[in-house]
Every structure is written in structure tokens, then in C-alpha cells.
Amino acid sequence: MIGVNYYKITISDYNGADPHIISHEFKTADLPEKRKKPKGPRAESIVNKYSYMPTLIKIITDDNHIFAFQYRHNIDGEYLVDVFDGENGEYISSAWFPFIPHDIKKGKAYFCKYHYSQWIRWKMNYVGPNLDQDGFPAIEVYKIDP
Q1: Is the CB of residue 2 less than 8 Å from the CB of residue 52?
Q2: What is the pLDDT of residues 79-132, one digit of tens each?
Q3: H or E stretch covering 41
Q4: Which pTM value belongs to this model?
Q5: What one-character-per-residue DSSP string does 57-103 give?
Q6: Burial profile 3-41: b = 16 or more Cβ within 10 angstroms, e = fewer
Q7: I need a surface site. Which of 56, 74, 81, 144 has the fewest CB within 10 A?
Q8: What was the pLDDT predicted at 28?
């Protein structure tokens, strides 16, 4: 780890209320060795300038909850997720997720183990894993309790 920093999430209200900012501490994640070998001059300038990963991979909102997925992993490959109350901007908790869901709605995380590009290859007679009995990508649903 390189150091401790803060990321900020700005919440805007389209009804004219003033935006409020959520600020939360995080530890930077080092750039993996495989990414330190740039391909091309533009990539080389970026790698030379930054020696750590971006702060967040993805932000997902569900009603009044905000899920901020960090680049940090534990030894099991799980992602660190910070959960906030979107209404008042308060930090609720952090959790380790074994995957980054495609969406979170009504307290349920939806995860398609089979990426669309893999599904296209399957439709072109590519046989792959994670399909349901009809040959479509399987979607897993997990209950979340922030």
C-alpha cells in the first residue's frame, strides 16, 4: 500500500437542492506488476505517472444506499465495498464482495457469470460454462443487507 487518501462522491438533487459530498478514507492499491509493462508510448506515460490503481471500480445505487467498489482485494480475491446512506451521506459499513454485481435493486445483487462476449461466442458454436439448461447465461441473485 502506498498511503491513505480520501475519495469524494457528490450527490446532486435535480429538484434544486444544494449537492452534498460524501468523503471517505481509503488505502491506495499498488499497480500490479503485469500492468507496469506498458504497450505503447501513451500507456508508458500513464504508468510512469501513476504507480497505483484508480480509487473505485464501480458505484451502484439502490434506493437510498450507495455501494462504492474499490480496487482493493483480499487474499481470496474479494473486493472491498463501502456502503453509504445516500440520503444523509453517512457511512454505514464496509464489506468484502466475491464479485462485482452488474446491478443492485431492492436489496438484491444481480450477477451474470457469463459475459455477453462469451455468450456471442457460444451462439457461434462455442461451448462454455455458466449457462442455464436452455443455453442462456445464468444470472445469480444474492440478498444484500447493508
Answers
A1: yes
A2: 899 999 988 889 999 999 988 888 899 999 988 776 555 545 555 554 555 666
A3: helix 41-49
A4: 0.73
A5: EEEEEETTEEEEEEEEE-TT-PEEEEEEETTT--EEEEEEESS--SE
A6: eeeebebebeeeeeeeeeebebebebbebeeeeeeeeee
A7: 74
A8: 73
What is the pLDDT, as a whole number, of residue 99?
A: 86
User: What are 82's three cell numbers?
Assistant: 463501502
Which of 47, 5, 7 minimizes the C-alpha distance to 28?
5
Map grid coordinates 501513476 to a residue: 50
pLDDT tens for 29-39 read 666 666 566 66
Yes or no: say if 72 and 29 are a contact pair by the CB < 8 Å rule.
yes
The grid coordinates of residue 116 equal: 455477453
For the chain, give the number of residues: 146
Residue pair 121/88 in contact (Cβ under 8 Å)? The answer is: no
Q: 60-75 as b/e, with b when 16 or more CB fall inside 10 Å?
A: bebeebbbbbbbbeee
One-letter amino acid identity for 44? E
Could you tell me the residue ranges of all domains in the chain? 1-100, 102-146
